[in-house]
Design goal:
six-stranded mixed sheet; alpha+beta; 418 residues; 56% helix; single chain; two-stranded antiparallel ribbon
């Protein structure tokens, strides 16, 4: 084991419940190994050690756990403010392996102690029961990290409506919790300026008191000049070190290979991961641009169709106006009362022709004096008269219609109707 064991903290605000970066949903997908980054980090099939307020069997359901947490505390959120913190409590994995046990063994007593004390530490300053979920991943190359999901609540005075007096409400507030911790640590070290520094000092001291007095506070980046080693780089360096160790022979060779190859593996892996992420981002941007162009084309087509519909509507309006005009003209030429009389005139004509012997039921008689051309003319005239109106009136209707118009004089008998 290395001579020096360090403790450190990483923390990020949880902005909302979404699956976007910084959202609780994104952390939930990561814990379930449903996002690309988490799938790349897996090196062994081992379930995590985890717990949440969502209940048994729902340990990785962070959104449900957060809602249960809010209900338990009777807390509300401030509009636009972060809804919690993702705190990662870290101890050198060498400390977990010191007694010959694997840092990825769920039965390792030091793994259990690290998880227990990480939760106890965060609730010592964020508030009792402020942690609603934790997770210790066993399937990654790295180890010694406890993911804590924390939503501290503090009593704040808030107005519940316009014109209402302010009242005390239990409210999710990471700012107040971090400010309280900062003041506590500044009382011990006036040189501490930020809440992040306060967390680092507080966690290291807690580890010394509850885990091992040899554990030291991690050195600030400003002093070491080192960059944070991402999990992808750690995994690659782990694999490079393992390969070099096998080549050198035995576990001692592995340890030597890991130490020697870690920096080179870290730099190589980090570059590869960044390149892959850039390629993925570029591909997604291309997909978004293609979709945007497709929508723009559909929008232009829709505008053309709207113009065509407007033209057809105007054309229809013009046709309706013309139809109304034609109707007015037709009414002026042939009033409605006259059109009602036409069917009666047609029947009178047919009866007159039958009485004259021109027609005999459905067939013409042998003594019919009309020529075929004359009969065709009569049928054509009858059809035209019939087209003027389809109203079938009785003889009584005819008399009523006649009374409503001027008196009709009896016509002299036709020479052919004798």
């Amino acid at each position: 084991m290395k001579d020096t064991i360090y403790a450190s903290i990483r923390v990020a605000a949880i902005k909302n419940l979404s699956h976007a970066r910084g959202g609780l949903g994104a952390s939930e997908l990561h814990g379930k190994r449903l996002d690309e980054i988490s799938q790349e980090r897996v090196v062994r099939a081992v379930e995590p050690l985890c717990w949440s307020k969502a209940g048994h069997g729902l340990e990785l359901e962070l959104t449900a756990a957060y809602k249960a947490h809010k209900s338990e505390l009777g807390a509300v959120e401030r509009q636009g403010a972060a809804i919690g913190m993702h705190v990662i409590a870290i101890v050198s994995p060498d400390w977990l392996r010191e007694n010959g046990e694997s840092a990825h063994d769920p039965e390792n007593p030091r793994v259990k102690a690290l998880i227990r004390e990480a939760q106890a530490w965060v609730e010592s300053w964020a508030g009792t029961s402020s942690c609603y979920a934790y997770r210790f991943d066993m399937d990654e190359a790295g180890s010694g990290l406890v993911d804590l999901f924390v939503a501290p609540a503090r009593i704040q005075k808030r107005k519940t409506g316009k014109g209402n007096a302010a009242k005390e409400v239990n409210t999710i507030s990471i700012r107040m919790a971090k400010d309280e911790l900062l003041k506590q640590e500044q009382a011990l070290d006036p040189n501490i300026r930020k809440s992040g520094e306060a967390m680092q000092s507080s966690w290291a001291r807690w580890c010394q008191q509850h885990l091992d007095p040899r554990i030291l506070r991690g050195q600030p980046k400003a002093k070491t000049g080192r960059d944070h080693i991402h999990a992808e780089a750690y995994k690659q360096a782990y694999e490079d070190g393992y390969a070099a160790g096998v080549k050198a022979g035995g576990l001692e060779g592995y340890e030597a290979g890991w130490i020697e190859g870690s920096e080179e593996g870290r730099q190589t892996s980090l570059t590869a991961v960044q390149r892959k992420r850039y390629d993925t981002l570029a591909a997604r941007e291309a997909e978004v641009e293609a979709e945007r162009q497709r929508l723009a084309r559909e929008q232009r087509q829709l505008e053309k169709e709207k113009v065509e519909v407007a033209k057809q509507r105007n054309r229809l309006s013009e046709l309706l106006l013309k139809a109304e005009s034609y109707q007015e003209q037709f009414d002026a030429v042939l009033p409605l009362a006259a059109r009602k009389v036409l069917p009666l005139l047609l029947r009178v004509l047919r009866r007159a022709m039958e009485a004259a012997g021109w027609l005999d039921g459905r067939e013409y008689t042998a003594s019919n004096p009309l020529t075929p051309d004359e009969r065709e003319q009569i049928n054509t005239a009858a059809g035209q008269i019939r087209a003027f109106s389809s109203i079938d009136q009785t003889a009584e209707d005819f008399h009523k219609a006649a009374k409503s118009t001027r008196p009709v004089q009896a016509a002299p008998p036709s020479p052919g109707f004798g």
